[in-house]
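Memo subject: From amino acid sequence to discrete backbone structure tokens
Action wanted: Derive the backbone structure tokens from the amino acid sequence.
How to read it: Take the token row as a discrete description of the fold.
Attached in line: The record itself begins immediately under this heading.
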Amino acid sequence: MSGFRLTRRASLALGAASSFGPSSAYAQKLDLDDPKAAGRIRAKIMGSAAEEAVHTFMRLHFYAYRHDGNLIPLYTMNNLNVRRWSPQPDGGFKAKVFECGVYSKFDTTEPIEFWENPFSGEKIKTWPLLSGPLNLAIAADGNVTTGAEATVKPQPQNFEVIGDNVFMPQASAFSLPHPFPAQEWPKENSGERSFRDSHYVYIAKAADVANAALSNVPSVVQLQNLVSWAYWLRMGQIPGRTWGRGFGAKLTSLDALPRWVRVDMEKKTPKIFDTAHWTEFVNEVAEYKASHRP
């Protein structure tokens, strides 16, 4: 993956932002010629440049994309991401990543236990997302790497400064052999390979990003992804993929998690609330295979 720094164009844009003039001290504080600035900025927008756990909550509305018409609403995922950050002696940053997702009726706060496949009519028990710990690293020069087990491989893109905000986009294009062989799992399998394209944008205030005293800045995140059918949807060889539209933000603490979401997660994915003691790798695909018959 290529390294990443704020560009001179972004520096000029930051200096011209509406809340501070062209001679702004903020642009100078970012020290754009220092390669280490990119890594630290990325860490404190995504999570933290200090030793701490950071929680991000996101709502993702999922649609079916069939290649031959408009998107078809399916369901909404309530996603909680926990990253336990630690700065490294070489100037980089590492995080242990834990994630869960539970489902609600599309664009509502109504948790669902079962979901009806709109193409087959089959009524299916929802299968929550639960994964971790995964490994994430931000090098001192801004490179981002993930462990072999991760299905998102973020590629940093150039920062953009628009008005008072710093936009930090990243894209991931990834595929792997489908984890459910077609001969054994004809409904769960959707092809020889499973494809995942994920495009994130993190947004933070320029003044916060430029503040050297802050190791963790408030940020919001927006996601779009195009992914092979999730195995638990039992789409089989029906053409298409899911298209996801997500948005969320860092939480000041778990107390900021919507109460109805927390109740549902405590019921279905309680492990996410004790990541300090979560050491054994958990993967929802393996859990599904262990509890379902081919």
The longest helix spans residues 35-46. The longest strand covers residues 72-87. The CA atoms of residues 229 and 241 lie 5 Å apart. The radius of gyration is 20 Å.
